[in-house]
Amino acid sequence: MPFRGKRSRKTTTINLLLGFIEPSSGSAFINQLNVHENIKATKRFLAYIPENLMLYPNLTAIENLDYFSGIAGKKLSKSQLVDFLEESGLQSDAFEKRISSFSKGMRQKVGIAIALAKDAKVLLLDEPTSGLDPKASNEFGLLLQKLRTKGVATLMATHDLFRAKEVATHIGIMNGGQLKQELVAADITLQELEKAYLNTMEYKELVL
Amino acid sequence: MIFNTFLKETKELMREGRVRIAFFIVVLLLGIAVWISARQYQNVNEQYESATATERGLWDNQGEKNPHSAAHYGTYAFKPKYPLSLVDQGVDKYAGTSIFLEAHKRNEAQFSAATDQTGLARFGDLTPDFILLFIIPLLIVLLGYNSFTKEREMGTLTLLKSQGISNWKWMLGKWTALFLPIFTITLLLFLFAGILLSSLKDFGVFNWGSLFMMLLVFTIYYMIFTNIVLLISAMTKKSGISLVISLCVWIVTCLAAPKAASNIAESKHPYPTRQEFAANVLKDKKEGLDGHNPWSKEAKLLEQEVLKEHGVDSLHQLPFNFDAYRMQKGEEHEAEVYFKHYNYLKDQYTKQSKVYRSLAAISPYLPTRFLSMSIAHTDYATHWDFADAAEEYRIATQKFLNDNFAQNSEYGNWRYQADAEFWKTLPKFEYDPPELNAILSRNSSNLWIMGVWLSASFGFLAISIKKI
Q1: What angle do CA B51, B56, B62 make, to 5 degrees?
Q2: A10-207 domain in CATH 3.30.450.30?
Q3: Which residues of B touch A (CB under 8 A)?
Q4: Which residues, including other chains, have CB under 8 Å from residue B354's CB and lie 6 or more apart?
Q5: Domain assignments of chain A as residue spans, ordered by start
Q6: What is the mean pLDDT of residues A154-179?
Q7: Pair type for strands A153-157 and A122-126
Q8: Where are the domains of chain B?
Q9: Could you tell me the pTM of the whole model?
Q10: Whole-angstrom distance, CA of residue B334 vs CA of residue B331
Q11: B85-129 confidence digits (pLDDT tens)
């Protein structure tokens, strides 16, 4: 269920779910656990891919995956690591290459592999498709759909209406930190979604 | 998690060009420094052996001679070079290596290496202690300044946090990754030095215990630096700023603080100038008995005292040569004067050392330097020790000679000559530097200060890491 809208505070929302910032009021819950009270425990379910996912440039894809899943407390064999990278759709000749030569799309695939390796139940994505070429964006969409079939709940913040309609089950439109509209992706067309989005934005401008 | 982070940090370090170059340079410098020092050590030791043997030969073979002439002829006490000076040269370069022992006069140690060199010697030598004390801390700064800031700058910090990282274990991993390569270099150097020293012939008082203690001192020094550099990296936001602050700390700790400490110590407890010192000694000497002057007031007094004591009324009736007896009494007076004035110098030195020790709290460099020099027997205290031992030997030698003179001749007989074999009966000069235990108890405050530095810096690091 993607969100969108400039200055909509979607990154803030994600940070709240990650426990990076404290809520000024109310609380965020993951798996019925209050995030703020269970910062370490809720992290176990979470995987997060920031807008510009940065990995260690001097390490290879496998080494990065190994390190980050090690931090999450997983000990994986080389063949398991390779399996996760394959599952994330990274071309196999890049496994042993250093991240410094990777494009954003490739780094995100490693990010997905990290999420897979962690066996995350919740995936938080912040603008994952911005700056991706259409093919990479399409691959990423397919990957998210595959994760959905595995039972991973995904929260994706994006401006990409097309990708949102494509991969989401539920779409919420946020503005100024508030959820303005909630839509079921299957019930609307892309045109209707765009209209709803523009209406919400205009509403904001009217208020201003 | 600790081991993971350690492995990852090590891999990252090894793949960075600057790290490889820095490491290569340090190892190369160390290799050269050890090689040069080992050769110098061997050289000096050979010189010491041959000088000691030659000088003793001259003394033993001076033939029939009046003992007091022999006293003026004199002999030398040579300061041996200690094996661990291979690692830490200390003040050896500036302290003299030999003391001329003669009648009536306490001489300063002469022939320091620095006097044989040009003004360039002031810029310092490439010695292992220079690298151990200055360059390796700099290496720690260069390797560790961006340990935490790079995670912030690269953006990997958010991903790490979302993976539920434990800051404490993360820090320990980074700490180990920074410290272990440094420790490996140090360990290799000390092992190398140990093997080199134990393979040399006549390696003197070398023992592995002292070497191990020195290794421990430097290990603690580097641990403190590792803590400080990581602390700065954890507390700053940008790598550049972290680097600048770390370098400032290095400059203050290794360069500014020691110089400031010696300036403060010197100005608080100044030494007298050489002229003052000589004038004071001369003045006091004149106030007492002069062995060569039988007509002075003190000489007459001594004469009457001795006559009364032996119940005779002429010096000729004494069972010994009164001239030699007076000579010995004069010698004793002079020795006392020297003792007093040198004690004053020593007092000033002790006070200066105390100032140093109290200032050691401002920089971990100071206690490290003092401990390492002491253990290597290249500090100023050992030099004092040696000079005192030489003076004691000088006094004993004078008594040995004067007694022979007094017992084997009668009053007024200055033509008496001792047997050519007599000189060989003079015991040899032996000097044993203080044992490791004595050195450590003398430096206990330095050990304490290092302990406080170590635990405080680690404590601050542990606190700062929670806020990342």
Answers
A1: 125
A2: no
A3: 1, 4-5, 7-8, 11-12, 15-16, 154-156, 158-165, 170
A4: none
A5: 10-207
A6: 83
A7: parallel
A8: 2-466
A9: 0.87
A10: 5
A11: 888 888 877 887 888 888 888 888 777 776 777 666 666 678 888
